[in-house]
Amino acid sequence: MKIAVLTSGGDSAGMNAVVRAVVKAGILKGCETWIVREGYEGLVRGNADAEPTETPSLKPAVDVKVREPSFIQNLRFGDGELLRDGTGDHTGGRTLKGRYIIRVGWDDVRGWFAECECALSRPVQGGTLIGTARSAAFRTQEGRLKAAYNLIKEGIDALAVCGGDGSLTGADVFRAEWPQLLQTLHANGQITDEQLQKHGHLRIVGLVGSIDNDMSMTDLTIGAPTALHRICEAIDNIHSTANSHSRAFVLEVMGRHCGWLALLAGVSSGADFVFIPERPPQADPWEDMMCDAIKRHREIGKRKTIVIVAEGAHDSQLKPIQASYVKDVLADRLGLDTRVTTLGHIQRGGRPCAWDRILPTLQGLEAVDALLEATPDKPSYMIGMRENRVTRVPLMEAVAMTQSVTAAIKAKDFEKAMSLRDPEFQESLKGFFATSTLETEMLLPPAKRIRVAIMHMGAPAGGMNAATRAAVRYCLRQGHTPLAISNGFRGLLDDNIYELSWLGVDNWMVRGGSELGTNRQLPDVDLGAVAAKFQEYGIQALLVIGGFEAFNSLVILEEGRKYYPAFHIPMVHIPATISNNVPMTELSLGTDTSMNALVDACDAIKQSASASRNRVFVVETQGGMCGYIAVMGALAVGASIVYTPEAGIDLNMLRADVKFLKARYGLDVKGKSEGRIVIRSEKSSSIYTTDVITQVYKEEGGALFDARGASLGHTLQGGVPSPLDRAAAVRFSLKSMAFIEQQHEILMKQPAKTRTAAPDSAAVITIQSSSIQWVPVKEMVAHADMKLRRGKHTWWQDMKGLVETLVARTQPHLPSVSASTIPAVKFQEIIREGQSTIVARMKVPTPSGHAFILRRLDTGAISLTTMFRAAFPTASEESEREEAAWVKANYDLSGTNKAGKARFAGTWVGPGVAQEIADAYSLTPILEPLTSAEPDPNMEYRKSSRAQQQTPDKPASAVKQLPTPSPSMTTPNPPKRSRREASPAPRVGSTSPAKPPSTASALPIRRSARTASPAPTSLPKLIATPIKPVSPKITRSQKRRVEVATPAGSDETAVDDEIAEIQGPDMSADIAEQKEMIAAFKAQREAALNEHESEDVGMSTDGEQDKKRDREEEDAPLQFDFKEPGAETTLERQIATNRRIRFPEMTTQRKSLAWGVALFAAAAGAVTYLPNPWF
């Protein structure tokens, strides 16, 4: 498939990240990727006027061996640098002039997160590098006809559009008209019948790029967080001059039909008043309402006034409210020295913030999946966001709802307009009024008022002070008493507790760190004294803001309710930690601030690394035992490698990382390498420190790359909190206060002397998936690793693999295996045509079950097929074959899968090759014990044998045969088996002729019932019901666990350690056969002894069969399906028992019985014929 991506409408930060993600995801999915310059206008113009251009030299610096040839083919096409430099339309040398639909490769979009990521150091910019324009031509039928022709001409029928509601509407109209447009082109002779049939369906997906955040059915649009950053930065700077001169400032921000920017800026900056289109002032005239509110603020001593006006603001009669008019009102009525600041297009520009890099990346990946899954009967989808999850919603439903908001505003139905916005928008508006308005009267009666203690715990984090400010102002509005506990529980014991005022917390919104002071001291330092202080100060509710220590403190206090009545009060924890290690919540306050500090630092570091052209920086981050900041920061800055405490670091991992860096730098164009970032969480390893890793890279990089280290330390905790952290702090704080009021009201209904707080009254506010939920602290303990101070399950763990995928590094599902989790090696004896082979096997867990890695002890070879399945359990059969073909083309595999007659299906590699491949598969920790394990010579391992039937005309190797029942083995009562699948092995001793399989279909691939198979599920079957083979009887005293060595994709079923009670047939008929065997044995004994000395057991066959077997090996399913040996001979000899008796198809039980009968007959003969010395 060929995928094109374009940006349309107004530009926004994050659009470049969308293009980058779509291009990389498309290449990873095997698609060709194209960009369309200048939006829809570029579609209309196409490449008809393209000028001749030079082809640059794109040869890699060194010859690098890669696994995917398609990656090299899509590595670069030379136009990415022109787009980055803005020299695309330059007429000299290579140019893009006249070309609007351009194919791009992997490296063509590198550095598109931020401009400093490219090979040359230059200022950072947002916007869109591929250009955007509002096309009048595309709005016409003729323009869309030209656009369709230009796409068909390049073979493109999948389009990702990033823009606003108008751009997405145009995309859906284009898709609806596509069949008609193609019919017109065909009728005009512009496209062929083949093109008409091949491109009959246009696949469309929309991504919302809008700084206004005005699209319905999504919480956040691409570019909105960065625009909010620009606004809050401006207001933060204005605060100082406003406070110095006691001035009022009126700021006009963007938002023609949506007031999200104005509202969130007001919440995040502590503004006094805001005007938004969805909810105009309800008072008439509104000037009185605004002036009364600001006058009350001035009367209590506030020196500055901030009013924010959205450009589309109006009163209840839809009369526009202009910033200049608001300025006149404040100056005339209140006598304030007032200034107007219009931010304008400053809001659109600048470096994208961390979230505007992560969000477009995740949405771009989802967009490619949506295109690949699109069908004519499915609607076009828009990729959106709900709380912390990427979503897919019908595009036109979202557009229709967005347009409904505008229609409701025009109809003066403001309640409906607010209801059509997302819930967070409505909560933010309520939060603004609750925290910005100074009420003259308290809203609650004295009986419902509470003394609320507020405490900070653990390390400081951005948003702590903002949450405290919101809680204090809510308390004062309701009539509660807010008590600040300074310096945590240690401060409580030292009586550092005082009341907070409305004006006293006014400037706390923009302050980082912790104004109350914080430490890690837990209340169990003296739980009784803590309870006494609660009683002394009359604390009726507790709000704790902090990280894992705050959660742990709440656990201790809740347990303390058994002994201290003072703790029977509502207690709430708001997670605030840059580590994001509080269990069960997906986000904590402070993480966005820390992420932006990390992005700022890495952007600056990468400029230095890129200026040196070939330098790797190992950047150390904070985070404790949780790797959230490292992983998400790596995703935001485009890091090449990330190390986390969860995965750890070992020598094999470092070896693989060095190989990857060497290969990647080798693929760069000589002299144009880029600087690269490696991020290491501070506690990833106590041995492999940042300095050690840097020295290893420096030593191993040689002439390809250099290395330096950088530790960011506590810079990630400081700084001004980000707007998103401030807004979230207000939201969480107000919800927490409402929860406290609700629980307090329940508690007050109980008798005073026997009041008992319910367990759920001590709770943590969490974000889970797409909603905010309260979780009782008792329930959270089961989800917490108290020793490592983090949650047991994290939503972001898969992001580590995504980081490495986006730098073209193969990422198996096993990123690392610790020594404590390496599975045990087990052995099994496999018998094929009388030859015994010991196979070592290791059971490896996979996301959907398990897989096995196998090693032959006779040749030492290891199954590449099982290694691939263990590392990539969801890979397709085609990927497996391609991997095997690549290994065969690059390594010598002769002699690895042949010893005597035992030759197994699949691809087998020697130990050295396996070790090299294991590094890329992240299987090295597993492979080492497997290659070194040796069986116990004194132990008898479970045997697995399988024989193949032969037809009179052809050998077994030439004709694949179906299992057929053996009449001699049939019993009246079929045996009970604990297996979930029947083995397809042929019956031993079967006399029925085998039916050859049809040439039009193949047997279904047999796989473990516990391991998901990547093979298609609709394979044809030749037999309706598999025939279950009958095994000899095992008595109850001989019951044992049945284990089968099962590689992923094997036709032997993995058994769940079940006890199998197997009953066999009556053996009386076989006794007669054994008597005949004894006679044959005596006659052949001498001949067999001579044959032992002189005969080689290798069986020669026609060389063509050997070649045919080698060709079929690649396509054969992974199964232990014996094939006849080729022409080569071996030095190994058959087991004497099989050679002498010459009954290779006998089962082990029959052979044992035969020997018993032979010995009994010999003893009976001796008693009968030998003379008796006693008589």
Structure description:
This is 6-phosphofructokinase. The protein is built from 34 helices and 30 strands. By secondary structure, the protein is of the alpha/beta class. A 7-stranded mixed β-sheet has the order 3-2-1-4-5-10-11, sandwiched between helices. The protein starts with a strand and ends in a 6-residue tail after the last helix.
Protein traits:
6-phosphofructokinase, 7-stranded mixed beta sheet, 30 strands, alpha/beta
Please summarize what this structure is.
By secondary structure, the chain is of the alpha/beta class. The protein is globular, with a radius of gyration of 37 Å.
Secondary structure blueprint with pairings:
Blueprint: E1 2-7, H1 15-28, E2 32-36, H2 39-45, H3 69-73, H4 80-85, E3 101-103, H5 141-154, E4 158-163, H6 165-187, H7 193-198, E5 203-208, H8 224-245, E6 248-253, H9 260-269, E7 273-275, H10 286-299, E8 305-310, H11 323-334, E9 338-342, H12 355-373, E10 381-386, E11 389-394, H13 395-410, H14 414-419, H15 423-436, E12 451-457, H16 464-478, E13 481-485, H17 488-493, E14 497-499, H18 527-536, E15 541-546, H19 548-560, E16 571-575, H20 591-611, E17 615-621, H21 628-637, E18 641-643, H22 651-667, E19 676-681, H23 690-701, E20 706-711, H24 723-748, E21 762-768, E22 771-776, H25 777-781, E23 784-785, E24 790-791, H26 798-805, E25 825-832, E26 835-846, E27 849-856, E28 862-863, H27 864-871, H28 877-890, E29 908-909, H29 911-921, H30 924-932, E30 943-945, H31 1068-1094, H32 1103-1115, H33 1136-1141, H34 1148-1169
Helix pairs in contact: 1-12, 2-5, 5-6, 6-13, 8-9, 9-15, 9-24, 12-21, 15-16, 15-24, 16-24, 20-21, 21-26, 22-23, 29-30, 31-34
